[in-house]
Amino acid sequence: MMEAQESSVQYNRWSNSQDEVSMNMSASGGLDCERICTKLCTGKLGIAMKVAGGIVLFWVIFIIGYVTGYYIHKCK
Length: 76
Prior knowledge:
The protein has helices at 32-41, 43-72, and strands at residues 5-12, 20-27. It folds into 2 domains: 1-41, no CATH class; 43-76. The model has no long low-confidence stretch (mean pLDDT 77). The protein is built from 2 helices and 2 strands.
């Protein structure tokens, strides 16, 4: 499994007239939430989650609109 890593890159072109690039990478063990989010938001699983989320959102808005319309247009 790949773990999320934090990295920083510094570019220094003014020392000794040579280009220097230094990279610092530190592994973060406490980023399980980011790893799960990345897994759920990319690839085929991500597409399926977005489609399912869209369908759920459609039905939530539909039900809210139905209930609101029922009480607004209710005969007294």
